[in-house]
């Protein structure tokens, strides 16, 4: 007669206590204490370099949370759409302009500029639960630059940086000397409604393009170049260049790291790629 005994439940899933990361607890905590704004991919890369141990960023985040660290923000800004813009966005965006642009994404050139400074530093970091996150940041009068570029489905085009705010004269100069030589017959240049972009002379320069199309205010979230600028600023915060020369060198190196697949994904995420 076959007799069955009681079997103890077997634990499944992640090992308790951090698994293979436990022996490196002090090392990981030391790195985070020394560099509070270190990101989890950077921490994973450093762990591989120093110990040959491979750990996923999500695993490191859970492990640090178990060790009493929390992810904190010392600066916060959240853009909000006004309720009145939502119907306009639906009509002029998804149901209006986007379907007409999707068949030929290679003709689209998204233009915008963003402000950068030599005091940029990371805005987030980790600290022990219950403790305030304290980190150093530059203070004083620092130089401000404007970075302007165009985004195509296969890369950035006509990147340009000046050490002053954008105005109509600078925009016309950029159009004539940087953007116009890169345009092809039938290209569509898409830009927002900034006052300096409304220059009649600037709109006449790119004669080889089919037209320059203003982006409605309700569709500012649909401009894929904003995602490219987010990557640019993230790298600038990581590098921490404090002089104009080093800053411009850093921008040049970052622009070389936009791959065609990445730029295509920017357009796809904004709804400008074919279904």
From TrEMBL:
Residue span(s) of domain Tc1-like transposase DDE: 107-238
Bilayer-crossing regions: none
Domain of life: Bacteria
NCBIfam families: transpos_IS630
Protein name from the UniProt record: IS630 family transposase
Source organism of the structure: Novosphingobium soli
